[in-house]
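ugh ok fine here u go
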Amino acid sequence: MRRAVLLLAVLVGLGATWVWLPSVLLQGPLERHLVAALQARGPVSVRAVTSPLALVRGRIERLDVTAVGVRAGDVTASRLVASFRGVTARRAGAALEIVAVTAGTVQVELTAADLEGYLGARGVEQASVRIAADGIEASGAVRAGPVLAAVRVRGQFYVADRSDVYFRIDALDLSGMDIPPAAATAMLAMAGRPVVTLRGLPVPARIERIAAREGRLIVDGRVGAEP
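structure:
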């Protein structure tokens, strides 16, 4: 009886190693690829689940990714969390490159600080952003020649082409003067440019929804065939 139990324990241990070992070997090469592909400013961590047989075929059964400081279009997002199934990968030097995914989900999280950085890159100094369920409010100062003028803007995010998030300006006040939305959009160099896009991800995703939650903007996306 004791031998049977011992044999069973050994077989279970070997089975766990069969799955665990290739997953551990994938971690470094996948993280190297994703740091570059996501232009991540912070750490990227992955958890891969696969088997030696699947690995020989270049397949990863499941891949979970968490990344900090991810480039998502013109903005750097605080955090990205993704879960992929049926991943096809190939060697690219010391990295393991993701080339296809059967299905998966992606969530990009932006904070007020992320959007303040975005506005700062567009000439808004001392930018301050408030993210609320009813829209976005931002204030700061812009240079009009030698003058530093106070600016306040209100607007909404919206999705276009299921891959891009744009900002629609509803109102802009420049030192007490109302600026028409079209002129305000041009002034902030936002015309025709998405604030957030999922097109540049290693596996492009389509946006399913955007929402403001607890002072953050959450962009939820999906990879794979339409449901």
